[in-house]
Every structure is written in C-alpha cells, then in structure tokens.
Amino acid sequence: MKIMKFGGTSVGRPERMHQVKDLITRGDEPTIVVLSALSGTTNALVGIGEALAAGDKSLAKERIDTLHAHYLAFYPALVQTAEARAKAEEIIKEHFEFLNILLKISFNEAINRDILAQGELLSTKLFFTLLGELQIPAVFLPALDFMSIDENSEPELPKISEKLKAILAQHPKERLFITQGYICKNHRNEVDNLKRGGSDYTASLVAAAINASVCEIWTDIDGMHNNDPRVVDRTRPIAEMSFDEAAELAYFGAKILHPASIWPAQLYNVPVKLLNTMEPTAHGTLIKAEVETTGVKAIAAKDGITAIKIKSSRMLLAYGFLRRIFEVFEKYKTPIDMITTSEVAVSVTIDDLSHLEQIQAELESFGTVEIDRNQAIICVVGNKVAETKGAVQSVLDSLINIPVRMVSFGGSKHNVSILVDAQYKTQALKSLNEGVFTW
Ligand code: ASP
Ligand code: MG
Predict the structure, then answer these.
(1) 20 to 30 Å CA-CA from 289: which of 13, 31, 101, 312?
(2) Start and end of every Aspartokinase ACT domain (predicted)?
(3) Per residue in 220-244, pLDDT tens?
(4) Which protein residues have a CB closer than 5 Å to ligand 2 (ion)?
C-alpha cells in the first residue's frame, strides 16, 4: 500500500481536486490518500477562533460568513450532477451550522480545536463527493477513528497502527482510502491536531503505521531545493537525500515538509517522495535511508533565533555544569537548537522566547548571561559533509566577510550550523550558494 498526501494548494481549487483525482487513480497499488484543508481555510479557522476567544462575536460571524461564501462558490465547479451538488451543499451546511452554533455558546480551547478540524473534514468530504459522482470506488476513513496523541501531544504510533490495520482489514478488496491530515484525538478523547502543517506528519505516521511502500507528499513545488529560492536567485531541486539530511533540513526554513514527519518514515524505512501536483512527471525529491552522494547538498536558514551565552569561571574543570544549565531550559519546556562550549562559557540558541525572562533570571545564578536576539542559523547539510575533504573549508571560506557568532560542527556527520546576526542572512546564503556548490 502507498500513501499520497496532498497539501492545501493541491486541493485549493475545484480543478486541482480533479487533478488529484487523476493522480490517485493512475496506479494500481492500493492507496491511502491524506488531504489537507483547502488553502487558506485553516488560517481562516484560526481567525474565527481568535475572534471568539476575544469575545468578538460579530467579527467571528463575519469571518464564518466569508469562509462559508468561499465554499458555496467552490462546490458548483467541483461536482456537476444534481445529486452530488445536493450532497456537497449538505456537507457545507452541516459544517457551517456547527461553526454558527459556536457563536451562541461559551468558548474554550477544546472548542477551538474543533473549529480547526473543520478544514480537513470539509476537504475530504467534498473530495469524496467528487469520487462518488465519478463512480470511483473509495472508502472514507475518518482520521478521528485511528489518529491519536498522548498527554504530551505525541502520536501513539503502536495504537494508531493497530486501529488502522483493523479498519483496513474490514475492506480487503478496496483500493482507495480517503482520510484527513492534521486532525486527531487527544488523551481526553477530544478533537485535537498535529499542529500547523501537520498533514505531512499524518501521512508519515500512516505510512509507518501500515509499513507502506512509499509516502508521497504532493505540494506545489518540485521538491526540496538546495537553497532558499526566496533569497537566492539560483537554486535547484535535490534529487535524492537521506532521512538524516532531510531531518536536518526540514527544521530549517525548508518549509516544504513538516519537521516531525521524517522520524516515522525513517523508523519504518518508508521512502518519502516530495512531488509537484502542478508538474506530476517531474522527479521531485526522494528521501530514503542511504544515499551515495557526499559533500554539501543543501543550505537553509532559520530566522528568529536568540543566542544565550552563560559565562562562568565555575565551569572551569567542573562537572554537572551543563546539566544544571540544561535543566533550566527543560523546566521551561524550551528546546535548544545549537550549542557551543568553551572552557568557561556555553552558548545555546532557542527560538521560543515565551519564557526568556525566567530562563535568564535562573541562568544568572550560574554566571554572567548575555542575550543576542535577531540571529539566524545557517544550516549546511550534506551526507557525511563533515568527512568530505574541503567541504567545511569551503563553507568557512564563503563566509569570510561575515561576522560569525557560533559554529556548530561534529554534532552529526551531516551538518554544519553557523549562527550569524539576521542582517547577514541573505549575504550568507548568497555567498555560500556561490562558494560551496559547483553549478
Ligand atoms: N491544514 C493544516 C494547516 O494549514 C494542516 C496542513 O495543511 O498540513 O496547518
Ligand atoms: Mg504543508
């Protein structure tokens, strides 16, 4: 069985949904299709939730009506027969009635998550209606019946696998299954989600859960690029990368893939393909366990980074110092991205500033603390880049005119991370582009 996941832009217009229908009916391998919400819908739902949270019901109503109008304009171009149109109307009516009811009751976080779930419910039901009209046999697979997260919001892969396999076993002859990305149940059995962009994560979890042959992620670009196309002029799609390379890159700016979606596929060794709905025959990017290539493969950057330096003579020859520092970050559930140390100082970077003040206050009991905001991590990734002769040198040579705040090398064989002030990000990406790739 294979997984095909389509993102918001791939289902965002009626004609795109028709294209998706063509793509999922081409091959003969049984397929689970994972759909995102139509592009723009989740943002709109977030906006509705925010208006309700702020107690502004008239704004919420206005936003619900705008979204409703979007769907009322969408379905007539999607399906043609009176029967299918009536079905689509019914689906839209049901979901917007639900949203309108929320205007009358008191708002809470569980309701907000229910609101956020409407996008994927609508997209899959409308798509299923299209398949019905075209008499394409398919099974509707509600994600809320099998996707679950635990009390730490971590997906429960063994449970997901067990439930999903049991459901699939009830349909031994069917070849096409349609399910929602992003949404799930939490440990309180409420509707929840896998965070923004989480449909990729769903696809990867489903792929792992059934040990799929491949997990295809269909988006609107031709795979992962070797540099940020928004910043540098010349980039190219990467044909093949390893899970390790992809994991390093997905976190950094390369917005094409949700960072958490690598591990489930990697754990069960399911290859992931990044493909382009607009150009279905393009090669895209294949992510798998082993690749032959070595040297720098891609560069990505992440903004909004804050560097924290803790300097203390007590660190000299002491043990347990790092543990005490890390405990502070753990206490405030703040992940650390980069670390560098010297004999008397430690620098770390974070991107979640919610508890910066408390963290700073506690760290000050260990020594002097310096904080540099507005930094950017430049991440250079390549299979065994650390062992490739000249690779690291070419990275540093390219940055000769840029003040470097931190360098992290040797944490993995596949990555060199460099911290620069955000004002140098563009220059760094451009210089590296010319300095480390052969074009
Ligand atoms: N619809 C959700 C979002 O926009 C999930 C996804 O599309 O991956 O974040
Ligand atoms: Mg996405």
Answers:
(1) 31
(2) 378-434
(3) 888 999 999 889 999 999 999 999 9
(4) 7, 197
